[in-house]
Design brief:
By secondary structure, the protein is mainly α. It contains eleven helices and no strands. The longest helix is centred in the C-terminal third of the chain and has 39 residues, at 165-203. Keywords: Cell membrane, Membrane, Transmembrane, Transmembrane helix, Transport. InterPro entries: MetI-like (IPR000515), MetI-like_sf (IPR035906).
């Protein structure tokens, strides 16, 4: 019931933002640092969204973006968790693998695009690679953090009871690190969308990012906002899906947190 009482405030906050947007766009508000002179009204954006929903362009754009995101994300999830478990459990792996990964981690998605185009034979693979790089590092670092945060006394207790390395990994390390891994997976999904849109703006022919950039080029300002909102909704929905699946996979953690 507590969450139920919070919804009116959330809806009121959203309504206040929409009202300010409508008034500022209608008045073509100019605040000096930024201006609403060319910003479309919510009504214009809603009309543009309606037109897109009833056109033949929406499904190809959605299918292209979703396939690229999930291909890159799934590869990053698999590699990120495996590397994170290895680095978190092995000092040798930490010393040999983590330093080059830390050098690559701050490089933004835009900087990867020229190299990705040179490395891969198709623009499709290069865009998947960019979503992969965006998701990899949050997943990797959160997995490493989760593994390192497991209480050493639990590992020692399992070892004293005769558990081998695989048993300790399966029964102690993975359950202990799972909440951190789920957090990394949710963050990685969001960064996948961010990186994909950047790639599609430069090398795509279909996709929500390409649609948004094309709308800017032809000066369809309402369509720009539609593309932005689509990206936000898809990113929010896919991250929520990852969190939900993570909650189902770690019932002990959420039961303990709810009991506090």
């Amino acid at each position: 019931m507590t969450n139920l009482y919070r919804w009116p405030l959330r809806l009121a906050s959203l309504a206040a933002c929409l009202l300010f947007w409508q008034l500022a766009a209608n008045a073509r508000l100019d605040l000096g640092l930024f201006t609403f002179t060319y910003v479309p009204t919510p009504a214009a954006v809603l009309d543009a969204a309606w037109q897109l929903a009833h056109s033949s362009k929406l499904l190809p754009h959605l299918a292209s973006s979703l396939s690229r995101v999930f291909a890159g994300y799934l590869a990053a999830a698999l590699l990120g968790v495996l590397l994170g478990l290895l680095i978190g459990r092995s000092k040798w792996a930490e010393d040999s693998l983590l330093p080059p990964l830390e050098v690559l981690r701050p490089i933004p998605a835009v900087a990867w695009i020229p190299l990705a185009i040179l490395m891969f034979p198709s623009s499709e693979l290069s865009m998947v690679f960019i979503t992969f790089t965006g998701a990899l590092f949050p997943i990797l670092l959160n997995t490493v953090h989760g593994v390192e945060a497991v209480d050493p006394r639990l590992i020692a207790s399992a070892r004293s009871l005769g558990a081998g390395r695989l048993a300790i990994l399966r029964e102690v390390i993975l359950p202990g690190a799972a909440p951190s891994i789920v957090t990394g997976l949710a963050i990685g999904m969001g960064t996948s969308w961010f990186c994909l849109v950047t790639a599609e703006m430069i090398s795509g022919q279909f996709g929500i990012g390409y649609y948004t950039w094309e709308s800017y080029v032809v000066q369809n300002y309402a369509d720009i906002v539609v593309g932005m909102l689509l990206i936000g909704l898809l990113g929010m929905g896919s991250s929520a899906l990852v969190k939900r699946l993570g909650a189902l996979a770690t019932p002990w953690y959420h039961a303990r947190r709810n009991a506090r």
